[in-house]
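Re-run with default settings, no changes from the original entry. Doing this only to confirm the output is reproducible before filing.
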Amino acid sequence: MALDIETKQRLMEKIQQLPPQQVPTLEDFIDFLYSRNQTTDQNLVQASARLAENAFAKVWDNPEDADYDNL
């Protein structure tokens, strides 16, 4: 999600109004949000892979591909 200039400016003004000792807390929170989004993406990839396992098993589990099982 790209932020427009007005949103960025509003956020910057709020950050600048924080007491200096709260800036590390804000940075930690931003890092938390970023990592949570990364985790969500990883969970989606893993869930998609699990959902596809049955479909791939039907395609790959056949006598013609048995030679590849030994690799």
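The chain has a mean pLDDT of 84. Residues 16 and 23 are 9 Å apart (CA to CA).
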